[in-house]
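Hi Y.,

Following your request, here is the sequence exactly as I used it, all 711 residues.
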Amino acid sequence: MNTFYSLLLLGLALCSASPLQAQFEIWEPTFGPHGGAVTALVTSTEGVVIAGTDRGLYRSVDSAKTWSRVSFDEYEIHVLCRDSSGQLYAGTDNGLFRSTDHGREWLSVGFSDTAILDITVQTNGMMFVAGDWGLFRKRGANDPWEKLQTEQYELRVVDAAADSVLYIADKRLVSQSRDNGDTWCPVYQRKLILSESEEDRGIVDIVSTKEGTSVAVIEGDYLGFVAQCGDTVATVLPKRIQERSQTFYRSHDGDIYVGTIFTGIRRCSNPPSSYWSFYSSGGTPVTAIVPMVDTLFYVGSNVLGVARIVVDRSQTLGTRWDHSADTMALTRGNVIRQFQGQLVLGTKEGLFVSKDRGDRWERVDRTYMDIHLIDATDSLVWYAGRDWEGAMSTIDPTAPGKYHRLDFADGVLSLKARGRYVFVGLQGKRPALSDLPFIPPGSLWRTIDNGTKWEKILKSINVNTIAAIDDATWLIGTNQGMLRSTDYGDTWSDVQDMRDTTIFDIHYSLDRTVYALQVGGFFKSSDFGLTWERIVSLNGVPSAITTNFLGRVFVEYRGQVYSSENKGRNWELFDSSLPINKWVLTVDEAHRLIAAGEYDNVWRTKQSTASVENDPGGTVTSTRLLPNYPEPATVSTQITYQLAHPEVIRLSIVDIMGREQRMLREGRVEEGIHKEEFDVAGLPSGLYFIRLVTETEMVVEPIRIENSKGS
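Below is the corresponding structure, written out as tokens. Let me know if you'd prefer a different format.
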């Protein structure tokens, strides 16, 4: 697998030989090497770490704590590899080199004036190298290199899986060989038509399944599997990964991981399945990775140099969170509710119930494998599957298996139950492909008899969210604003403060405050939704919100949980150890905060949110960069960081290649929370990183700049 063409991966964390379990990730910068962007990593049989950069090769004998430059000052290192005998190989822009002493000395083994872009070793001991002159094979240690006949030149990647099976790729074509490279069959030829705004990256990387029967392909921003030679390729590159896929890694047990720039690692645990779950996120861009053991691996970065990641399975996530149920380790939670003292969780794998506040979970229904809506009346739990399924079910979780399916002609978009009333927002009929992106308007329906009889009360409207203040007073959020009813839904009126905007969540707190999340704003109402005021004290619009019985508000924003005890006037950072994810929040009967991630496990706080001591002075216990505000940065933006101790720091803006573009602060800074204004004038629009370097650590936070005046 080629790492040279991998750019930045944001938050890389994976384990080479074990299935995903509850885990605690610790990122630790090693402050080196800084000779250039780290493009490749390998470890010797003695645990020596070798890092290749665009300006030479570095070596560490103390678990990546200190580094020394060993060779190739004038060469760019594209790939590093270790064969079955323990010999190390380095592919450079000027040939192939080998080390037999754990990276101390390197000798040329040929290919002078040739850029070696990838190396792979077959399970049968054969070695293959790909470069700008084609593909070469070495059958055994004492055999010569032989050039293989292929239709492809300037190869980007070569990958080996099962015995005799190889895949190669250049920018336009993927080919397969079943006889160790003697003959080749085209598998996939690039066929995407790019828009003017898309970068023509061609085929970026490939990796075969463990059995070698199919191969995963990244082309441009698209990702998918291709069938073996001779098979009909029915679905090629079915998914566009907006966070930009960059590189593959195949573990020993056959799981395939793909690294992206913006959201870390996705994992396919059943290749060639088309579903890629989020595996891990973190705070550093990464260009190379080498696994060590179950609990330790190294990553190379354009910004941090080389970093260690420790995966400690004996710890829980952060200091506030406790993992809820190992049986949920592979279940992605979508939405969670309470019912008669039980927790009910809708996931991509069905409906689960916990009778012991999350210690253990039991699957009670498989009717839907992607549940995105749950609510409950006094006797029933109501739930619905993902868009367009056009059906909803009710179930009594105390009697698993006894559910009732309700069929609708259209998909269920929103759901709210209170007392004997249940309101359901339906989507319009599924449009033909030729009609997209137009989505026909839906409707709002109501039942007062547990679904036996339904009546349509609003038409030509897409209802994104529904909230009940009491039995008579209801609020709905739409793509055009908010509507309010005080007569059980018989009549509706516009909420003047919420017109001409998209409302995607409404939450009613027990202290009688209503909160609304809309595109571009976070609002609250103290008169049951009649008038609204903007909450300006939080940097950004949360993606999830809940409250406890005291009215304490909890919101999730970009993996960080904030809380407010005065209805949003002031906020404190509650916790920032959750990985970046799509979270839903709720509070259980013990007043513990519960977070269910769409692509992660279920977590709960170790203490009650009604008894956790809060420090009004905002004591800082760690070094952190908080998300900038406003986001994206168009003219200027405020960068907030915190220091646990007085430190000599350097705060700067770097581009995606790790090159410093602006220095914002340098020198000694006292402990506490600090803010710096950053003027984006003169910088082109795009993705950058805020980099904070202290005497003991380095942290990075992405920042987007949209600067129409940038040069």
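Residues 368 and 549 are 32 Å apart (CA to CA).

Thanks again,
Q.
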